[in-house]
Protein backbone atom coordinates (compact mmCIF):
# COMPACT_ATOMS: atom_id res chain seq x y z
CA UNK A 1 0.00 0.00 0.00
CA UNK A 2 1.60 3.25 -1.08
CA UNK A 3 1.69 6.62 0.64
CA UNK A 4 -1.90 7.91 0.99
CA UNK A 5 -1.14 11.30 -0.56
CA UNK A 6 0.46 9.60 -3.56
CA UNK A 7 -2.60 7.38 -3.94
CA UNK A 8 -4.91 10.41 -3.89
CA UNK A 9 -2.78 12.26 -6.44
CA UNK A 10 -2.61 9.22 -8.74
CA UNK A 11 -6.41 8.96 -8.81
CA UNK A 12 -6.74 12.69 -9.39
CA UNK A 13 -4.24 12.60 -12.24
CA UNK A 14 -5.99 9.65 -13.87
CA UNK A 15 -9.34 11.41 -13.78
CA UNK A 16 -7.91 14.59 -15.25
CA UNK A 17 -6.05 12.68 -17.99
CA UNK A 18 -9.35 10.98 -18.88
CA UNK A 19 -10.86 14.44 -19.34
CA UNK A 20 -13.06 14.22 -16.26
CA UNK A 21 -13.79 17.13 -13.96
CA UNK A 22 -12.36 16.69 -10.49
CA UNK A 23 -11.42 18.65 -7.42
CA UNK A 24 -8.68 18.50 -4.79
CA UNK A 25 -9.70 19.31 -1.21
CA UNK A 26 -7.06 20.20 1.39
CA UNK A 27 -7.61 20.65 5.12
CA UNK A 28 -6.04 24.07 5.69
CA UNK A 29 -7.24 24.97 9.18
CA UNK A 30 -8.88 23.29 12.17
CA UNK A 31 -10.34 24.51 15.45
CA UNK A 32 -10.91 22.18 18.38
CA UNK A 33 -10.96 18.46 17.67
CA UNK A 34 -10.65 17.36 14.07
CA UNK A 35 -10.85 13.87 12.52
CA UNK A 36 -8.07 14.64 10.02
CA UNK A 37 -4.96 16.81 10.48
CA UNK A 38 -4.08 19.98 8.61
CA UNK A 39 -2.59 19.10 5.21
CA UNK A 40 -4.82 16.06 4.64
CA UNK A 41 -6.14 15.80 1.09
CA UNK A 42 -8.92 14.09 -0.83
CA UNK A 43 -9.84 14.02 -4.49
CA UNK A 44 -13.37 13.93 -5.88
CA UNK A 45 -14.32 13.00 -9.45
CA UNK A 46 -17.46 14.27 -11.18
CA UNK A 47 -18.74 10.67 -11.09
CA UNK A 48 -18.77 10.72 -7.29
CA UNK A 49 -15.63 8.61 -6.91
CA UNK A 50 -13.46 9.66 -3.96
CA UNK A 51 -9.83 9.07 -2.99
CA UNK A 52 -8.54 10.06 0.44
CA UNK A 53 -10.51 11.79 3.18
CA UNK A 54 -10.87 15.05 5.08
CA UNK A 55 -13.23 13.84 7.82
CA UNK A 56 -14.98 10.78 9.14
CA UNK A 57 -17.17 10.60 6.04
CA UNK A 58 -20.01 13.11 6.39
CA UNK A 59 -18.09 16.02 4.88
CA UNK A 60 -17.08 13.78 2.00
CA UNK A 61 -20.77 12.96 1.50
CA UNK A 62 -21.63 16.67 1.40
CA UNK A 63 -18.89 17.37 -1.16
CA UNK A 64 -20.09 14.47 -3.29
CA UNK A 65 -23.63 15.86 -3.12
CA UNK A 66 -22.56 19.37 -4.06
CA UNK A 67 -19.90 18.65 -6.67
CA UNK A 68 -20.76 15.41 -8.45
CA UNK A 69 -23.53 14.03 -10.61
CA UNK A 70 -23.91 10.86 -8.57
CA UNK A 71 -27.07 12.12 -6.83
CA UNK A 72 -28.73 13.66 -9.85
CA UNK A 73 -28.11 10.45 -11.79
CA UNK A 74 -30.14 8.68 -9.12
CA UNK A 75 -32.97 11.19 -9.47
CA UNK A 76 -32.33 13.13 -6.28
CA UNK A 77 -33.71 16.68 -6.25
CA UNK A 78 -31.29 19.59 -6.33
CA UNK A 79 -31.22 21.91 -3.35
CA UNK A 80 -31.15 25.64 -3.94
CA UNK A 81 -27.64 26.79 -4.78
CA UNK A 82 -26.36 23.25 -5.39
CA UNK A 83 -25.24 22.64 -8.97
CA UNK A 84 -24.10 19.00 -8.66
CA UNK A 85 -21.19 19.82 -10.94
CA UNK A 86 -17.52 20.72 -10.51
CA UNK A 87 -17.05 24.28 -11.76
CA UNK A 88 -14.09 25.92 -13.41
CA UNK A 89 -12.45 28.82 -11.68
CA UNK A 90 -10.11 29.69 -8.83
CA UNK A 91 -9.96 27.73 -5.57
CA UNK A 92 -12.63 28.29 -2.94
CA UNK A 93 -12.57 28.12 0.84
CA UNK A 94 -15.33 26.21 2.63
CA UNK A 95 -15.82 25.81 6.37
CA UNK A 96 -17.64 23.03 8.23
CA UNK A 97 -18.72 22.75 11.82
CA UNK A 98 -19.12 26.42 12.68
CA UNK A 99 -22.32 25.70 14.63
CA UNK A 100 -23.18 22.84 16.97
CA UNK A 101 -25.85 21.68 14.49
CA UNK A 102 -23.29 21.56 11.67
CA UNK A 103 -20.77 19.74 13.87
CA UNK A 104 -23.43 17.13 14.62
CA UNK A 105 -24.59 16.95 11.00
CA UNK A 106 -21.09 16.48 9.60
CA UNK A 107 -19.91 14.06 12.26
CA UNK A 108 -17.27 16.38 13.68
CA UNK A 109 -16.11 15.95 17.27
CA UNK A 110 -17.69 18.25 19.83
CA UNK A 111 -16.53 21.78 19.09
CA UNK A 112 -14.68 20.73 15.96
CA UNK A 113 -14.42 23.05 12.96
CA UNK A 114 -12.34 22.67 9.82
CA UNK A 115 -11.67 24.76 6.75
CA UNK A 116 -10.95 23.32 3.31
CA UNK A 117 -9.46 24.74 0.15
CA UNK A 118 -11.12 23.31 -2.95
CA UNK A 119 -9.08 23.36 -6.16
CA UNK A 120 -11.22 22.75 -9.22
CA UNK A 121 -9.95 20.73 -12.19
CA UNK A 122 -6.22 20.82 -11.29
CA UNK A 123 -3.82 20.87 -14.23
CA UNK A 124 -2.77 17.36 -15.24
CA UNK A 125 0.74 18.44 -16.26
CA UNK A 126 1.43 19.92 -12.83
CA UNK A 127 0.02 16.81 -11.14
CA UNK A 128 2.25 14.59 -13.27
CA UNK A 129 5.30 16.67 -12.36
CA UNK A 130 4.49 16.35 -8.65
CA UNK A 131 4.02 12.58 -8.85
CA UNK A 132 7.23 12.18 -10.84
CA UNK A 133 9.16 14.08 -8.18
CA UNK A 134 7.64 11.97 -5.41
CA UNK A 135 8.40 8.76 -7.28
CA UNK A 136 12.01 9.92 -7.60
CA UNK A 137 12.15 10.26 -3.82
CA UNK A 138 12.12 14.07 -3.67
CA UNK A 139 10.40 16.19 -1.03
CA UNK A 140 8.23 18.88 -2.64
CA UNK A 141 6.57 22.06 -1.43
CA UNK A 142 3.48 22.72 -3.56
CA UNK A 143 2.57 26.41 -3.89
CA UNK A 144 -1.03 27.14 -4.95
CA UNK A 145 -2.01 30.70 -5.86
CA UNK A 146 -5.46 31.05 -4.35
CA UNK A 147 -6.58 33.81 -6.73
CA UNK A 148 -5.76 31.86 -9.88
CA UNK A 149 -5.21 28.20 -8.96
CA UNK A 150 -1.77 28.23 -10.58
CA UNK A 151 0.67 25.76 -9.02
CA UNK A 152 4.42 26.02 -8.51
CA UNK A 153 6.58 23.15 -7.22
CA UNK A 154 9.67 23.68 -5.09
CA UNK A 155 12.15 20.99 -4.03
CA UNK A 156 12.89 21.21 -0.28
CA UNK A 157 15.19 19.40 2.12
CA UNK A 158 12.87 19.07 5.12
CA UNK A 159 9.08 18.83 5.48
CA UNK A 160 7.42 22.16 6.24
CA UNK A 161 4.10 22.72 7.99
CA UNK A 162 1.20 23.79 5.82
CA UNK A 163 0.98 27.57 5.50
CA UNK A 164 -1.78 29.82 4.16
CA UNK A 165 -1.05 33.54 4.06
CA UNK A 166 -4.29 34.40 2.29
CA UNK A 167 -2.57 34.57 -1.08
CA UNK A 168 -0.71 31.26 -1.41
CA UNK A 169 -1.27 27.82 0.08
CA UNK A 170 1.95 25.86 0.67
CA UNK A 171 1.72 22.16 1.43
CA UNK A 172 4.59 19.66 1.67
CA UNK A 173 4.42 16.34 -0.14
CA UNK A 174 6.99 13.65 0.45
CA UNK A 175 7.88 10.29 -1.01
CA UNK A 176 6.76 7.14 0.74
CA UNK A 177 8.11 6.32 4.16
CA UNK A 178 10.16 3.14 3.96
CA UNK A 179 10.99 0.33 6.35
CA UNK A 180 13.97 -1.94 5.85
CA UNK A 181 13.58 -5.10 7.91
CA UNK A 182 16.63 -7.28 8.56
CA UNK A 183 15.48 -10.89 8.73
CA UNK A 184 12.61 -12.72 7.05
CA UNK A 185 11.21 -14.54 10.07
CA UNK A 186 7.66 -14.75 11.32
CA UNK A 187 7.80 -11.49 13.26
CA UNK A 188 8.98 -9.72 10.11
CA UNK A 189 5.94 -11.02 8.23
CA UNK A 190 3.53 -9.54 10.75
CA UNK A 191 5.46 -6.28 10.99
CA UNK A 192 5.72 -5.95 7.20
CA UNK A 193 1.97 -6.50 6.82
CA UNK A 194 1.22 -3.76 9.35
CA UNK A 195 3.72 -1.39 7.79
CA UNK A 196 2.18 -1.88 4.34
CA UNK A 197 -1.25 -1.18 5.81
CA UNK A 198 0.14 2.05 7.30
CA UNK A 199 1.42 3.22 3.90
CA UNK A 200 5.11 2.28 4.18
CA UNK A 201 7.11 0.79 1.34
CA UNK A 202 8.70 -2.31 2.87
CA UNK A 203 11.88 -4.18 2.01
CA UNK A 204 13.00 -7.29 3.86
CA UNK A 205 16.66 -8.33 3.71
CA UNK A 206 17.84 -11.84 4.50
CA UNK A 207 20.78 -13.68 2.92
CA UNK A 208 19.56 -16.98 4.43
CA UNK A 209 17.60 -18.98 1.90
CA UNK A 210 15.93 -21.09 4.59
CA UNK A 211 14.09 -17.99 5.84
CA UNK A 212 13.87 -15.96 2.67
CA UNK A 213 12.46 -18.86 0.66
CA UNK A 214 9.33 -19.05 2.78
CA UNK A 215 8.49 -15.34 2.61
CA UNK A 216 4.79 -14.93 1.88
CA UNK A 217 3.87 -11.24 2.23
CA UNK A 218 2.90 -9.75 -1.11
CA UNK A 219 3.99 -6.21 -1.90
CA UNK A 220 7.31 -6.44 -0.06
CA UNK A 221 10.65 -6.18 -1.85
CA UNK A 222 13.04 -8.98 -0.88
CA UNK A 223 16.81 -8.34 -0.83
CA UNK A 224 19.26 -11.24 -0.73
CA UNK A 225 22.55 -9.47 -0.02
CA UNK A 226 24.36 -9.08 3.28
CA UNK A 227 22.41 -6.62 5.43
CA UNK A 228 25.20 -4.06 5.82
CA UNK A 229 25.63 -3.92 2.03
CA UNK A 230 21.88 -3.60 1.54
CA UNK A 231 21.61 -0.76 4.06
CA UNK A 232 24.55 1.01 2.40
CA UNK A 233 22.92 0.72 -1.05
CA UNK A 234 19.44 1.59 0.22
CA UNK A 235 20.11 5.35 0.28
CA UNK A 236 18.61 5.57 3.76
CA UNK A 237 17.12 9.01 4.42
CA UNK A 238 15.02 10.72 7.09
CA UNK A 239 11.89 8.93 5.81
CA UNK A 240 13.44 5.49 6.28
CA UNK A 241 13.39 3.16 9.28
CA UNK A 242 15.80 0.23 9.76
CA UNK A 243 14.86 -2.60 12.12
CA UNK A 244 17.08 -5.63 12.86
CA UNK A 245 15.07 -8.75 13.65
CA UNK A 246 17.39 -11.75 13.19
CA UNK A 247 19.02 -12.03 16.65
CA UNK A 248 22.21 -12.92 14.75
CA UNK A 249 25.01 -10.40 15.49
CA UNK A 250 26.70 -11.23 12.18
CA UNK A 251 23.63 -9.90 10.38
CA UNK A 252 22.18 -7.34 12.77
CA UNK A 253 25.22 -5.52 14.11
CA UNK A 254 26.82 -4.46 10.84
CA UNK A 255 23.47 -3.40 9.41
CA UNK A 256 22.84 -1.25 12.49
CA UNK A 257 26.27 0.35 12.19
CA UNK A 258 25.49 1.38 8.61
CA UNK A 259 22.08 2.70 9.67
CA UNK A 260 23.68 4.81 12.42
CA UNK A 261 25.67 6.58 9.71
CA UNK A 262 22.43 7.62 8.00
CA UNK A 263 19.54 10.02 8.60
CA UNK A 264 17.09 7.19 9.35
CA UNK A 265 14.20 8.41 11.49
CA UNK A 266 14.05 5.06 13.35
CA UNK A 267 16.80 2.53 14.07
CA UNK A 268 16.04 -0.43 16.30
CA UNK A 269 16.76 -4.07 17.08
CA UNK A 270 14.77 -6.90 18.60
CA UNK A 271 15.98 -8.57 21.76
CA UNK A 272 15.69 -8.72 25.53
CA UNK A 273 17.21 -6.10 27.80
CA UNK A 274 20.17 -8.40 28.37
CA UNK A 275 20.67 -8.95 24.64
CA UNK A 276 20.47 -5.26 23.91
CA UNK A 277 23.01 -4.46 26.62
CA UNK A 278 25.32 -7.08 25.11
CA UNK A 279 24.86 -5.58 21.64
CA UNK A 280 25.76 -2.11 22.85
CA UNK A 281 28.83 -3.48 24.61
CA UNK A 282 29.94 -5.25 21.39
CA UNK A 283 29.47 -2.14 19.29
CA UNK A 284 31.48 -0.06 21.74
CA UNK A 285 34.27 -2.59 22.28
CA UNK A 286 34.75 -3.88 18.74
CA UNK A 287 33.48 -1.07 16.52
CA UNK A 288 34.54 2.08 18.34
CA UNK A 289 31.02 3.29 19.08
CA UNK A 290 30.16 5.54 22.03
CA UNK A 291 27.11 5.75 24.25
CA UNK A 292 26.31 9.12 22.69
CA UNK A 293 26.43 7.68 19.19
CA UNK A 294 24.29 4.72 20.21
CA UNK A 295 21.61 6.98 21.67
CA UNK A 296 19.70 6.70 18.37
CA UNK A 297 19.66 2.89 18.57
CA UNK A 298 16.38 1.72 20.08
CA UNK A 299 16.15 -1.50 22.01
CA UNK A 300 14.32 -3.35 23.30
CA UNK A 301 12.06 -2.01 20.58
CA UNK A 302 8.35 -1.45 20.84
CA UNK A 303 5.98 -0.06 23.42
CA UNK A 304 5.25 -2.08 26.53
CA UNK A 305 1.82 -3.69 26.13
CA UNK A 306 2.61 -7.05 27.80
CA UNK A 307 2.64 -8.71 24.39
CA UNK A 308 3.95 -12.26 24.05
CA UNK A 309 3.03 -13.47 20.54
CA UNK A 310 4.62 -12.39 17.24
CA UNK A 311 1.54 -10.45 16.04
CA UNK A 312 1.23 -8.64 19.37
CA UNK A 313 4.94 -7.80 19.38
CA UNK A 314 4.59 -6.49 15.83
CA UNK A 315 1.78 -4.20 17.03
CA UNK A 316 4.07 -2.98 19.81
CA UNK A 317 6.92 -2.24 17.40
CA UNK A 318 4.72 -0.61 14.76
CA UNK A 319 3.15 1.64 17.38
CA UNK A 320 6.59 2.91 18.40
CA UNK A 321 7.64 3.42 14.77
CA UNK A 322 4.52 5.48 14.09
CA UNK A 323 4.96 7.50 17.28
CA UNK A 324 8.54 8.38 16.30
CA UNK A 325 7.51 9.15 12.72
CA UNK A 326 4.72 11.44 13.88
CA UNK A 327 6.78 13.13 16.59
CA UNK A 328 4.47 11.94 19.36
CA UNK A 329 5.89 12.19 22.89
CA UNK A 330 6.14 8.80 24.57
CA UNK A 331 5.97 8.51 28.38
CA UNK A 332 9.08 6.73 29.62
CA UNK A 333 6.99 4.04 31.32
CA UNK A 334 5.87 2.89 27.84
CA UNK A 335 9.45 1.83 27.02
CA UNK A 336 9.88 -1.94 27.32
CA UNK A 337 13.08 -1.78 29.35
CA UNK A 338 11.78 0.79 31.84
CA UNK A 339 8.43 -0.98 32.26
CA UNK A 340 10.12 -4.30 32.94
CA UNK A 341 12.66 -2.76 35.29
CA UNK A 342 9.79 -1.47 37.39
CA UNK A 343 7.80 -4.70 37.28
CA UNK A 344 10.49 -7.38 37.69
CA UNK A 345 12.99 -8.03 40.46
CA UNK A 346 16.45 -6.54 40.07
CA UNK A 347 18.47 -8.47 37.52
CA UNK A 348 15.49 -10.38 36.11
CA UNK A 349 14.78 -10.08 32.41
CA UNK A 350 11.45 -11.82 32.14
CA UNK A 351 11.01 -14.73 29.77
CA UNK A 352 14.32 -15.34 28.06
CA UNK A 353 14.41 -14.72 24.35
CA UNK A 354 15.53 -17.68 22.29
CA UNK A 355 18.06 -17.60 19.49
CA UNK A 356 15.49 -18.13 16.76
CA UNK A 357 13.87 -15.10 15.09
CA UNK A 358 10.62 -17.05 15.36
CA UNK A 359 10.62 -16.82 19.18
CA UNK A 360 10.88 -13.10 19.89
CA UNK A 361 11.06 -11.56 23.33
CA UNK A 362 7.77 -11.00 25.16
CA UNK A 363 7.23 -7.33 25.80
From TrEMBL:
One Pfam match: XdhC_C
InterPro entries linked to this entry: MoCofactor_Util/Proc, XdhC_CoxI, XdhC_Rossmann_dom
Source organism superkingdom: Bacteria
Domain XdhC- CoxI: 15-70
Residue ranges constituting the XdhC Rossmann domain according to the UniProt record: 179-321
Name of this chain's protein: Cytochrome oxidase I
Organism annotation: Hydrogenophaga electricum
Amino acid sequence: MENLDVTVLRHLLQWRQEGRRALLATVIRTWGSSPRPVGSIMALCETGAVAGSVSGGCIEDDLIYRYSRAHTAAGAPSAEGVTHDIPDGPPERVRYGVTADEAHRFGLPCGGTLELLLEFNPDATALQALLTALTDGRLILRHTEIATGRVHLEAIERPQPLSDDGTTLRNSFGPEYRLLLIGAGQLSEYLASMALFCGFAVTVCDPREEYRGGWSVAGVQVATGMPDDVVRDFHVDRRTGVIALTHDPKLDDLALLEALDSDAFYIGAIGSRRNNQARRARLIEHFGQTEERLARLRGPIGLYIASKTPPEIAVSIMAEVLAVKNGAPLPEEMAVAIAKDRMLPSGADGPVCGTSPRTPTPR
